[in-house]
Amino acid sequence: MLSINDLKYRYKNADDLYTYALSVERGEIAAILGQSGSGKSTLLDIIAGFLPASGGNISLDGRELTDLPVEKRPVSILFQNHNLFEHLSVQKNILLGVSRTLKSSRKEFEKVGEILKEVGLEKYEYAPVASLSGGQQQRVALARVLLRREPILLLDEPFTGLDRETKIEMLDLVKKITTENHLHTIMVTHDLLDAERIADKVYKMQNHTLVKQ
Ligand SMILES: Nc1ncnc2c1ncn2[C@@H]1O[C@H](COP(=O)(O)OP(=O)(O)OP(=O)(O)O)[C@@H](O)[C@H]1O
What we know:
Layout: E1 2-9, E2 18-24, E3 28-33, H1 40-48, E4 55-60, E5 63-64, E6 75-79, H2 90-95, H3 106-118, H4 134-146, E7 152-156, H5 164-180, E8 184-188, H6 192-198, E9 201-206, E10 209-212
Parallel strand pairs: 3-8, 3-9, 6-7, 7-8
Antiparallel strand pairs: 1-2, 1-4, 4-5, 9-10
């Protein structure tokens, strides 16, 4: 279980103190709702280690994560701005998620093939990312995140800007991937419909505090 207890954060020179408590079981999705600027992304940044907690703790199956450096955290993140290299192929974009050079091992190439099947892009392995639709590009970004198979998956409004039908396909894919890989998924969204479609539990930021709905 991913467990977040009395986690606190205050930005430098700011008055607001954000407080978070939540738990996510293996294979579960927790949705985080809340107005713009309410502190949703701040929580993801603390879990990922981009911001240091001002108090409280984060643990996964009893293992303390709170003070681990970013690169040691068992976390992958998918943002709305997916940071793909448009001129590179789908395969190369995904491999860049695991190695800094493009000299990958045969095992890694095989893994890319498997992951592309999982996200329904097996026909596009060698296509430049620029030739894909917005929804397909988000599938590439998801595949890149999945290659490392980290047990915690954080999604920060990743499907904003996609049409409703494509968004639903992506949400259902996140659900399938979370269930099949026993991930602990936290999805930040401003859309209640997203949460209702795939979340096992819903939380909302209210007055700088995360509250279970
Ligand atoms: N570096 C910073 N210094 C001071 N305040 C900050 C900093 N970064 C963010 N904030 C403020 O902290 C608050 C929470 O930001 P956060 O990004 O977590 O909100 P959010 O709920 O994710 O918003 P959105 O839905 O618009 O992305 C906002 O009011 C923001 O202006």
